[in-house]
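Supplementary notes for students who missed Thursday's class. We covered one full example, reproduced here. Read the sequence, then the structure, then the short commentary at the end.
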Amino acid sequence: MANVTLGVIIGNRDFFPDVLAGEARRDLLKLFGEMGIEAVLLDEQASKLGAVETWEHAKRCAELFRANRDRISGVVVCLPNFGDEKGVADTLKLAELNVPVLVQAYPDDLDQLTVARRRDAFCGKISVCNNLRQYGIPFTLTEDHTVHPLTEDFRRDLDDFAAQCRVVGGLRRARIGAVGARPNAFNTTRYSEKLLQAAGISVSTMDLSDVFGRAARIEDGDPRVKQKVEEICGYAAAEQVPGAALTKMAKLAVVLLDWMEANDLDASAIQCWSSMQQNFGVNVCTVMSMMSERLMPSACEVDIAGVAGMYALQLASGRPSALVDWNNNYGGDKNKCVFFHCGNWAKSFLPGIEIGTAPILGTTLGEENTFGAVAGRTPSGPVTFARVSTDDRNGRIHAYVGEGRFTDDPLSTFGSRAVVEVPGLPGLLRYICLNGFEHHAAMNASSCARRLASALETYMGWPVYHHR
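Structure (token representation):
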């Protein structure tokens, strides 16, 4: 699941055998084709074998990259031999792409350290990285210092890098909708819109009164409403939901989706209580769940920073995300806890998803006004969790990421729920508390913490705690 276009710089040094550059070109194009990655690189007539080793080559390659600026999500620097460190760095400086960069170097064969086949890319990679640091160009390394492109190890490196490109490109132009004000009781979900904007994340707002007013102007018999009711009933078990509540949920879906389409929004965060229940009479959770399942993540309680984390995880994995509370200890097991919301998790997390009420909110808002919450239990499997937060006192955005596992341990409760095992959980919780992170976290049923941490820290420039 690559879905990216990458620029390619094949480094070459003139007194090394040129045949190595030609082989590298064939190797990379073969791998890119197998992984569904598009390549932008000099053709073999633009420079010697399409490689970069001089100032003139750097200018030509940079011009090619600039002409494809809107397509290129990242750049792979390939060193089949020592390479020309200035040629690589000059190309990236002149191109001004500001995208992730992966540096790969071929390994030498012990039985081919001859003039005809000697590479020295082991050494050349250090020189290239030194120059990138001098030029102020951030970059990513392969897991091993040298690695052949046609190996599973490099395939994993490239898959991780493609994910980092999606995260960085997605976040730097993300558009998020804030629907309603945060619940008054929740200082937790306050955030700095200006810090997010400085990182490229734009926020558009819509008042709940506007949502309710638009919904009220839609007739119950409107074809769009009927279609949405059918979609809702096809999405989750809804036998216990009254018809009037289904109609209200469908109208909310029509209004929210129309607004998001009109504003090109990627994600949303909604005031899910208490005005929704008091003034409209349903929970918006099902609509949010359906959007998240469609890779349009939606977060509770106008948690904009929380949905930024959901979106980042989605970009890293290609799978839906959810917003959770670090909610309960799991008996005396210090490395296990309960993830919970009341709830709006995507269907991917809840194989037995059902639409019902929100009992906790119902105690004060009337349970009959809370139809629309989704319930179910997440089965065992991998989980990556993350939190993005605006650290306003220090004028920065920071984050943490980590991995664990959903377990099938017994759990008798309601709502959207999961038991999670995280090695070293007490230390993580201590870090969360001491550094002022929220009780919300984003989760994703995948293992993508390393690629996400690298993308956020290396290219977004955010301090990241990677729990391992």
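Commentary. The chain has a mean pLDDT of 96. Residues 152-172 form the longest helix (21 residues). If anything here is unclear, bring it to office hours.
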